[in-house]
Amino acid sequence: GGDTCDYLLSSGRFLGEKVWQPHSCMMHKYKNSEAKNCLIDKHVVFIGDSRIRQLFYSFIKLINPQVKEEGIKHGNIPFEDKSASIKVDFLWYPEVNGSMRQRIKSWTEGSVAKPHIIVVGAATWSIKIHNGSNEALAQYKINITSIAPLLEKLAISSDVYWVLQDPVYEDMLSESRKMITNEKIDAYNEAAVRILNSSSRNSKAKVKVFSVSKLIAQETIMKSADGLHLPESSRDTNAMILMNVYCNKIMKPIDGSCCQPQPPLTLIQKIAFCFFTLSIIGYLIISLIHRNNYRKNKSCTDLESGEEKKPAISIPNVSTLEMLLHCFCKLGLIMTYFYLCDRANLFMKENKFYTHSSFFIPIAYILVLGVFYTENTKETKVLNREQTDEWKGWMQLVILIYHISGASTFLPVYMHIRVLVAAYLFQTGYGHFSYFWIKGDFGVYRVCQVLFRLNFLVVVLCIVMDRPYQFYYFVPLVTVWFMIIYATLAVWPQIIQKKANGNCLWHFGLLLKLICLLTCIYFLSYSQGAFEKIFSFWPLSKCFELNGNVYEWWFRWKLDRYVVFHGMLFAFIYLALQKRQMISEGKGDALFSNRVSNVLLFISIVSFLTYSIWASSCKNKTECNELHPSVSVVQILAFILIRNIPGYVRSVYSSFFAWFGKISLELFICQYHIWLAADTKGILVLIPGYPMFNVLVSTFIFVCVAHEISQITNDLAQIVVPKDNSTLLKRLLCIAGFFSGLHFFSAMQDQSRH
Description:
This protein is α/β, with parallel strands linked by helices and about 750 residues long. The chain folds into three domains: about 250 residues, SGNH hydrolase (Rossmann fold), CATH 3.40.50.1110; about 375 residues, no CATH class; about 30 residues. Helix content is about 60%, strand content about 5%. It has a six-stranded mixed sheet with strand order 4-5-3-6-7-8, with helices on both faces. The chain has a three-stranded antiparallel sheet with strand order 9-13-12. It has a two-stranded antiparallel sheet with strand order 1-2. A hairpin with a 4-residue loop joins strand 4 and strand 5. The radius of gyration is 33 Å and the shape is elongated. The relative contact order is 0.09.
């Protein structure tokens, strides 16, 4: 916790060479449009010497990148953006003297319009002109003492920043500047810090000391052209810090946690807090009652005979109510941790910074661990349960490392991760098609069970973390695809394996259904208008809108639009081959004859490597994303064949990866708030100053929480979604009532915000 504004202005470190990381918080990189929206109708003034002029130019380039540094060097420089009514002025006052005092005093008198932001700083000219004399330092102290009350008065209604002097690179200074030493600069800075705010007792009337530029200069002044002025990258960093200090509280960017106040609790969050509190109290009361009953009925010693008597009443089983309260009790504690990590200003957050080592070394490490925990599978069928759990597990671990390392900035890695997401959706198509095709179970119970397990955690997080459903985009994606698979197979005529075995024509009927599905997918992918109309109808719009439109949902759906169909088609072909005994799935047996197996294995390896080479040579993300939906299946199928054609490979699996695979959905969702931070834009810091130890601790807690939530979801699924149809109908009515109430309170919330 603490005041992140103070941290932003005073401390931080470089990640690599150019990325500045403030202590404890995240810095947003403002675009021109965002800077204009923040500073609309604002007046900003920079007062000082040539170093402040540098900062002025870097600042106005955030508003208009086309600006050139062509102004008078030793004079005032105005800037105005008429489209946003922004005025930014540089006023040439190289010394802290009577002239500067008079200018500042003019803003404190009468009805003169005061600047909204004032940035002041000067000292090197005083050192240079007076040859670094002690008399000049004494005069500097007197002048600052006279200016300080005026700045404090302005600070009541404006943001006032005093920029401390940056160190110089003494070896590069010209002869006329040799008297400007770091020792002298430190003395002037010390005087400024001691005098400013010394008379102010009002926290609102404080001048903010901009000291972070000193730290930045210490790392970069060696690259200076003259030993005095900072290189362009450093002054741009200073300007971005200044923009974050002022604009974050106005614009509230997700990845800009510095200077952002903690968001107030919404009505729905308050109701959720009350509910979880009551659940915890209720569970404790029931536990105490049961414990007292148990003690009363516990076997006691007969004082006369010395024999032990058995209790007359047996210990009752855990009631449904107690199990329900127990689940909500644990969930309430876990959600409190979620809120504290990513909504309260309790823990620190930092920006991501990608290096090849931060991504590939952990990948190599988990690969070694996965191979170490190799065991024999219980069955040797293609894509058996243990193998699919293993597949989900290692993919999820790679995706987690991809997110925490910030590897999305490296296009080859991004393209390969896109294949892993597509592979998860491929499994969705394969798994659900196989179940419906073999079992023929299209009952409501099955549908409700799947929907509950997929969506329970996300619905709770939407309430607790105040985020829309579409924010957790992967869950809406797999939910919609499950419903599409269900509708495709459940609609008349229902074609299942048992029926198709009696008449081969049913196979053609199913293929016709799949062709119709492919046609619909193709049409919607190239008709954005039709897609958006479908999902803009209420209540679908409440689920799939993000920032007031469904474009993000369309983009996510379109990115992997064919891969679920590919999974369904693969399942159909595989199960048909299996039924006709055209493949061998015995332990240690190759899937096909030796010749066919070798040819397919060779083609698969070549295809796998060819896709990787293509993905690694991608230069444009947009163009590669356009091709991805059609070609991602190549690497997925190649992997499946490489993993399953050799019998000895198909007969083993990694229990390490499979364990993570069983909780892969919970891992994917939980990472948003308790492993990463600021809704995945940054990294959660529980232990500052020790990056590796912090990752180990936060990862351990994160995995434990995901595992616990998986167990809670499974326990609640048995209670909320019972097998009895009449009871299930009552529960569905209760769930409908819950969502109606949620919509009502959400509407009240939106109205109060507007």
